[in-house]
Specification:
This protein is α/β, with parallel strands linked by helices. The chain has a single domain (about 1-160), classed as 3-Layer(aba) Sandwich (Rossmann fold), CATH 3.40.50. The chain has helices spanning about 1-10, 50-55, 75-80, 85-90, 115-125, 150-160; strands at about 60-65, 95-105, 130-135. The chain has a 3-stranded parallel β-sheet, with helices on both faces. Helix 1 runs parallel beside helix 6 (about 150-160). One of its GO terms (molecular function) is oxidoreductase activity. InterPro entries: Flavodoxin_fold, Flavoprotein-like_sf, ISF_SsuE-like. This is Flavin reductase.
Amino acid sequence: MADAFIAGARGAGHTVEKIETASLDVKGCRACDGCYRGGRACFFDDDFNGIARAVLEADAVVFATPLYWFSFPAQIKNVIDKFYAFVAGGKEFKGKECALLTCGGDTEEKAFDGLVRSYELIAEYLGWKDRGRLVAAGVNARGAIGETDGLMRAEKLGAEF
């Protein structure tokens, strides 16, 4: 879904940077309040500091994630938790746009309610404008998204962004 969204966005002339949190070393926030001390977003030197630069420079942030136990997976949740650094560090980034792309094996969309509500609260708290949400239920096996209209909808959302 992320790649389909990116194809649509690039086709519309947008510059896109894809950050795959699952392959990065982002430790959980320790609430140490060391944010932006020493010239970096997080006092602890992990991959979040590069993500923080990208988020601050971006006009929009798109969360593309599978559903794990009715919420965000730990890898992307660690990144979201460290968004605290922006608030504690006095970084102004209201007015960004955002979107959510998610899929999961559960066939009932209500299984996604927790993740979607978390996304809504994150956007509201940060002052970001929600540009859309794409939920693809019943997508469990790798590649199963191709058997749905999820990729087409993701590309369309990217093109309209």
